[in-house]
Design goal:
Blueprint lengths: L7 H10 L7 E7 L6 E3 L6 H18 L5 E2 L5 E7 L4 H8 L15 E7 L7 E7 L2 H14 L19 E6 L1 E3 L6 E5 L7 H9 L8 H13 L4 E3 L13 H9 L3 E2 L11 H4 L2 H4 L4 H19 L6 E3 L16 H23 L8 E3 L4 H7 L9 E5 L21 E6 L17 H13 L5 E5 L7 H12 L8 H15 L1 H20 L29 H20 L7 H33 L4 H25 L35 E6 L21 E2 L6 E8 L3 E8 L4 E3 L3 E5 L5 E8 L9 E2 L16 E9 L4 E9 L2 E2 L8 E2 L4 E5 L5 E3 L5 E6 L6 E6 L9 H7 L2 E8 L3 E9 L12 E6 L5 E4 L7 H9 L2 E9 L3 E9 L5 E8 L16
Parallel strand pairs: 2-3, 2-4, 4-6, 9-10, 9-16, 10-11, 12-13, 13-14, 14-15, 15-16, 18-26, 24-27, 28-33
Antiparallel strand pairs: 1-7, 5-6, 5-8, 17-19, 19-23, 20-22, 20-25, 21-23, 25-26, 29-39, 30-33, 31-32, 32-39, 33-38, 34-37, 34-39, 35-36, 35-38
Length: about 1000
């Protein structure tokens, strides 16, 4: 029995995602042992309503093996769907006051669902769906599909519905809509390695391309996700959308609005449709007549349908427009003429005033420069702002632009081909980042068009749904935690409530790692121009070995996937593979391939026999990607997705098998050690010496450090580790090494602080010195001895364990080895400003949480005196053992200013010093922007003075609203280069 069995997460979703008006509750039986409902749709209803009715009937059949009759004939129990003004049954119910449509009529894509007793003499009970327009009615029918448990990804991700013996819904009268964003959809792009070969060779071989059959399935998905707009695939690998006459008719049948990208003016595909032999050069300054004829032909062809016409012009192949004059004024004037001519064409061919025809102007790349230099854009054209291709919106509407009649929209990427590096394979865009950018866009009135560049659709399923759910109704997405709530609902719907939290946690870890470095960026190479793989910026020497930490983090994800897989029902195994397993295993394996390769080269330079082991692990990771991709294309879902997944789009170096290096060593087996913070191996010693020492252990931060025990040569080595003090702890005290699978063992050394002799009880800390030179009264020394058959190696161990009266019950941060590391959300104190405050966004940043200055509408403050008095401030108490000049490094999320006149700034100071403003804004495609996007981090620094050892306070003020602070490093001269800041040094 399905009745009243919505799980709690589903109920939350219904409450969140339905713009609901409460009324009476009613049970409605769709199928039971005794009865079966019909679906009542009038013949004159638009085609999309009939399509949606059939989809619903098919969905019911997939659950219960009962086929609902879809016709105009009455049944005693009926699902009655109609569009206001199109359905006589709906109009009759309104006239008899059995339903009210005041909250639906005349609105955009708004529908109502309710149960009515005896709506007609022949019908005992009806589940009535009334839509304000054709799409609304279709959405309403597919809302019933959701209610009975059919995922929008039923076909595209093989989320096979659960079988049931009857279908009974408890319906609460609800009105859904109007949507938050008027036009909502996706851009099929970079389809060369997935969607196009799959369509051409597997799904639609009769067409040999992405044709109407493929688009029908895409359009069905859009309807299920309550979307309404498509930007069709447009690469040269694919024939132009309008080259297949049926495509535009199928789009209209499904009520999908057709638009085109920034490079495709007037619904034209320049890549595929411009013929240089017959049409000449694609230059408006010299060949405008032919270009206008081209635009005119397309406008006439598309006039009967719903479209959004992109106005303006760029060059071929997503390049700048060619103009004769190289100065900005000439470029701007020519582009203005293009738009004027395009609007004249639209007026003539469509027969409407231009302000009645949807138009989009997309200031992408150099076009944004033209707009900023004064290009005059008709007030009724949509301003469609873009991100920088890596998830950060370059500009939004200023207060004046927010009043434009044409409104504004957003073109956003979760897939991209281009500089500094593509990310076309996996979905690696952090959903909380997307939430942050899109809620910001919505707040600044970009509410007319949202388009997501999702590449080949797969594997972008979750982010597509999140993007479109936000576009449908922004109300429930008021906090960063809303993303986790949404993902828990999504995971519960697809894989069961019992698995929802585990899958959500898994994905938040997955996106956290990808935020630090996307999988496709792990070769440290670039494109345009393409470069070979380069050494990693991750340190293998300091801070616990960043390479090994990342290896372990991805291994943990892989282990979690394998465990979760056993709990997934049989009918969802394919879906789990597509939505969870393949992307996680793929990301982990690509990381492992490169990380183990970096490990191989590092240890080979030290002559370690383990070089062969790491080379083998790297090769195995590459083979795993091959194996999984082979299964995706050939074994999954009976071969349904053959050719959809490429493990190497554009065949870039990052996808190649990584090279390996062999260690050169003698025959004799030898025990060797490598210590954290040392680039070289420990020198061979037989005498007792403390010359080789681990970094100082700090009682205030409870460090641990690694020692790699390894061998050179051939044969085996038995070893023992003997602490010379009872307060030294080691993770393993003996072992055997060989030159096969076990040539290296990593040990962790820590301190039992309850047993360490404590230093002198003094009020103040020692004045600043290198930790190795700390006076003996504050430091306790001992050693670890490593012994093999003919080798003794002694490693010094020093514990900094003083007793300072002014650090008793101290709760702040503390210096460790010459630096203080801080996660921005862990402030000691926070003070609100006159009109703003610091808040926390969860699920983003290197720290997993960031501090953001809100509201975004607050005024910027650049006056240093007023910053101190007016701006919100975060304060961080820290204790230093050194003094002198400090370099305060602040890491922010690399967002862009909202619009001209705003910035991305904060201000910092230690103690009572004057604030120093840090500006994270980048411009264009500069080298700084390039590095920020690769790393998802912007770092700026300020010189400050720490005037004495002891307690201090770092202050961080808002200068511009919206700036997101991730981490802070106070470098007193001890920080060693690393990719990320070291772990927090908090008491």
């Amino acid at each position: 029995m399905f009745k009243n069995k919505f799980n709690s997460v589903f109920i939350v979703f219904i409450v969140l995602f339905a713009n609901a008006t409460k009324a009476q509750n009613n049970d409605f039986t769709i199928v039971s042992e005794k009865q079966k409902a019909g679906i009542l749709v009038e013949d004159k209803e638009p085609k999309v309503v009939h399509i949606a009715a059939k989809i619903l009937a098919d969905d019911v059949f997939s659950i219960i093996n009962q086929r609902l009759n879809v016709s105009k004939n009455n049944a005693e129990i009926t699902i009655m769907a109609g569009t206001i003004g199109q359905s006589k049954w709906i109009d009759n119910l309104v006239s008899k006051q059995k339903i009210s449509i005041t909250d639906v009529k005349g609105k955009w894509e708004t529908y109502k669902i309710q149960v009515i007793e005896n709506p007609t003499a022949a019908i005992k009970k009806a589940l009535v769906i009334v839509g304000s327009d054709r799409r609304a009615t279709a959405y309403g029918l597919l809302e019933i599909s959701r209610m009975i448990g059919v995922s929008p990804w039923e076909w595209w991700a093989d989320v096979t519905p659960d079988k049931k013996t009857d279908l009974v819904l408890n319906i609460q009268t609800q009105t859904y809509g109007s949507p938050s964003v008027k036009y909502r959809g996706i851009f099929l792009n970079d389809e060369d390695w997935g969607l196009q070969p799959w369509a051409a060779k597997t799904f639609e071989p009769e067409t040999g391309d992405i044709g109407s059959k493929t688009y029908a399935k895409v359009f069905e998905l859009l309807l299920r996700l309550r979307a309404n707009t498509i930007w069709p695939a447009m690469h040269k690998s694919t024939k132009a959308f309008y080259s297949f006459p049926k495509n535009k008719q199928v789009a209209d049948d499904y009520a999908i609005v057709v638009g085109t990208s920034h490079a495709e003016p007037m619904l034209s595909n320049i890549n595929a449709e411009w013929n240089h032999k017959t049409m000449g050069e694609y230059r408006y300054d010299t060949n405008s007549g032919v270009i206008k004829d081209f635009f005119r032909k397309r406008a006439k062809e598309t006039a009967p349908f719903e479209n959004i016409y992109t106005v303006g012009m760029r060059g071929e192949h997503d390049s700048p427009m060619i103009v004769g004059e190289d100065d900005s004024d000439s470029q701007v004037k020519l582009l203005e003429q293009v738009i004027t001519d395009q609007r004249a064409i639209l007026k003539k061919e469509i027969g409407k005033e231009p302000n009645k025809i949807p138009q989009a102007f997309i200031p992408y790349k150099e076009v944004l420069d033209y707009y900023q230099k004064g290009l005059k854009l008709p007030d009724d054209a949509q301003l469609v702002w873009t991100d920088d291709n890596y998830g950060y919106i370059r500009q939004l509407s200023n207060p004046k632009e927010q009043t434009r009649a044409g409104g504004a929209g957003i073109y956003y990427h979760t897939s991209y081909w281009g500089r500094p590096h593509d990310y076309l394979w996996l979905n690696s865009t952090n959903p909380v980042l997307m939430w942050e950018e899109m809620t910001k866009a919505y707040e600044f009135q970009s509410r007319d068009l949202w388009i997501l560049n999702c590449g080949d659709i797969k594997p972008h399923e979750y982010n597509i749904e999140l993007f479109l759910d936000m576009a449908w109704n922004m109300n429930p997405f008021d906090k960063s935690q809303s993303v986790k709530t949404h993902m828990q609902y999504w995971a519960s719907r697809e894989f069961g409530t019992q698995n929802a939290n585990s899958i959500t946690d898994l994905f938040f870890d997955y996106y956290h790692l990808a935020f630090q470095r996307r999988p496709e960026f792990m070769a440290w190479n670039q494109v345009e121009p393409e470069t070979k793989s380069k050494p990693t910026a991750l340190t293998q020497i300091h801070y616990g070995d960043e390479v090994s930490k990342r290896i372990d983090a991805y291994q943990k994800l892989m282990d979690a996937v394998e465990k979760l897989k056993t709990a997934i029902p049989a009918n969802r195994q394919d879906a789990f593979y597509e939505l969870v397993e393949y992307p996680v295993i793929g990301a982990a394996s690509l990381n492992h391939k490169w990380l183990y390769s970096y490990k191989n080269k590092f240890v080979a330079e030290q002559g370690r026999g383990s070089a062969a082991f790491f080379a083998k692990k790297s090769a195995a990771a590459f083979e795993r990607i091959q194996k999984e991709t082979q299964y995706f294309n050939n074994g999954l879902a009976g071969g349904k997705w053959k050719h959809i997944m490429s493990m190497s789009p554009r065949f870039l170096p990052v996808f190649d098998q990584a090279t390996s290096t062999n260690a050169v060593a003698g025959k004799k087996p030898e025990l060797k050690l490598a210590l954290e913070s040392y680039e070289m191996e420990v020198n061979h010693r037989t005498e007792n010496s403390y010359a080789d020492v681990l970094p100082v252990f700090n009682a205030y931060v409870k460090n641990q450090y690694y020692i790699d025990v390894y061998m050179k040569g051939e044969g085996t080595v038995n070893w023992q580790a003997k602490p010379k003090a009872d307060w030294i702890k080691i993770s393993q005290q003996q072992g055997t090494l060989d030159n096969k699978e076990n040539s290296q063992q990593r040990l962790w050394v820590s301190i039992d602080w309850s047993k360490v002799p404590q230093g002198e009880n003094k009020k103040e800390a020692p004045l600043g010195h290198d930790y190795q030179l700390i006076p003996p009264s504050y430091k306790v020394n001992s050693a670890l001895e490593f012994v093999s058959q003919d080798t003794l190696i002694t490693i010094g161990v020093s514990a900094f364990n003083p007793k300072f009266a002014n650090l008793e019950n101290y709760k702040g941060f503390i210096e460790d080895k010459g630096y203080v590391s801080i996660n921005a959300v862990n402030y000691s104190n926070r003070k609100e400003g006159i009109a703003a405050k610091w808040e926390t966004f969860e699920g983003i940043g290197y720290a997993g949480k960031v501090s953001v200055a809100l509201p975004r509408t607050a005024n910027s403050e650049v006056d240093l005196k007023l910053i101190k008095s007016n701006s919100p401030v975060m304060e961080y108490d820290f204790y230093s053992f050194n003094f002198g000049q400090a370099n305060v490094k602040v890491q922010a999320i690399p967002t862009h200013a909202f619009y001209e006149g705003k910035g991305v700034r904060c201000a910092v100071a230690i103690d009572d010093a004057d604030p120093v403003i840090l500006d994270f804004q980048t411009f264009g495609r500069s080298d700084e922007w390039l590095q920020n996007t690769l790393k998802n981090a912007a770092v700026k620094s300020a010189k400050q003075i720490v005037n004495k050892a002891g307690k201090h306070t770092l202050k961080v003020w808002m200068v511009d609203p919206g700036v997101m602070i991730d981490q802070i490093l106070i470098d007193l001269g001890g920080w060693k280069d690393s990719y990320a800041f070291p772990p927090e040094t908090k008491m």
